[in-house]
Design goal:
Length: about 300
């Protein structure tokens, strides 16, 4: 089997975005072409909607070899909608796991439940886009299904590490109601699911101005009523810190894609395998459980070293 690959790159894992899965590490990222949705604001429309078939064909074996050679601890299927190439994904991700790589899927979640379960059996971490909370808008504007997306979220939360992203596209939904709906749905699965509220910028067929930072901040405030880990993204110069809920120690500092992990240690009693979704970290200062999945081997990341040491 060969995959038609549109892009291969090494990214910070925070770019997927995954903020609590192998934080500070790099991920070998592969993109294909095509998508089963038609979001008019698509920020990757050159490879999802209006594309020429790429000429680069890569077998799953060659892809995994390249990922291993990159030194990254993980491989991500990302950029357009990878799940439409599900047979290739299952083959490549199962091979990657056999060779010791963690596997990441970035998806819109518009799969039927049977294929979703089969694919997620080979995936360690997922970033799922929930684009709005209106079934009518999903169908009419995006050519997708809210019901399928939420069903996928339920399966992913049980099978893998799950983080969720919502791009706040002006006028796509009533955002106050939508964020309340999305967050209460996610909280019914787990309050610990990290939730990323991301700023939109004009792209493809959608010309509304960029999302206002004040709107993102206000929506993040609402999201925090339901969820424990809420982030805003795509804002220039953003800096964020995760702190221990028990003792206040800083766990992760982020400035853009510069990341430094502090005061986090692996939990010696954490379980592996499918239980990896539960996290495996403790606060290095007070020993409280911290919701992260850490590499069992330290990630070799230039990004981790790109940030200067904090002054005491
Ligand atoms: S699901 Fe993602 S890749 Fe597909 S059209 Fe929408 S924004 Fe673009």
């Amino acid at each position: 089997m060969k995959g038609l690959v549109s892009s291969l790159a090494i990214d910070p894992i925070e770019k997927k975005p995954l903020f609590r899965f192998l934080p500070g590490s790099r991920v070998f990222s592969v993109g294909f072409v095509g998508c089963n949705l038609r979001c008019p604001f698509c920020q990757n429309w050159q490879i999802s909607q209006e594309f020429e078939e790429p000429q680069t064909q890569v077998s799953p074996e060659a892809l995994v070899e390249q990922a291993l050679a990159s030194g990254c601890p993980s491989i991500a299927f990302t950029y357009s909608e990878p799940s439409i190439h599900i047979e290739y994904l299952i083959e490549a991700s199962s091979l990657a796991q056999e060779r010791g790589l963690q596997t990441v899927l970035v998806t819109n979640g518009n799969l039927n439940e049977g294929p979703a379960e089969e694919l997620l059996g080979h995936i360690n971490a997922v970033n799922l886009d929930i684009k709005c909370f209106s079934a009518a808008t999903y169908a009419r504007v995006l050519s997708g299904s809210l019901e399928n997306t939420l069903a996928f979220a339920r399966i992913a939360a049980a099978a893998a590490w799950l983080e969720v992203t919502t791009l706040v596209v002006p006028d796509l939904d009533d955002w106050t109601l939508a964020i309340d709906g999305i967050c209460s749905f996610l909280a019914s699965l787990s309050r610990d699911i990290p939730f990323h509220l991301s700023a939109y910028h004009p792209a493809w067929r959608y010309g509304e101005p960029r999302t206002r930072p004040e709107l993102l901040s206000s929506l993040a405030g609402r999201a925090k009523r339901e969820l424990a880990h809420v982030y805003v993204g795509n804002i220039a110069g953003e800096a964020q810190e995760d702190v221990c809920k028990a003792c206040g120690a800083i766990h992760v500092r982020r400035r853009g894609y510069q990341v430094r992990v502090e005061n986090l240690v692996p939990d010696p009693e954490a379980r592996g395998g499918r239980e990896a979704r539960e996290g495996n970290a403790l606060c290095g200062r007070c020993g409280a459980t911290a919701h992260y999945r850490l590499a069992t081997e330290p990630a070799k990341s230039s990004f981790r070293n790109a940030m200067p040491e904090a002054k005491p």
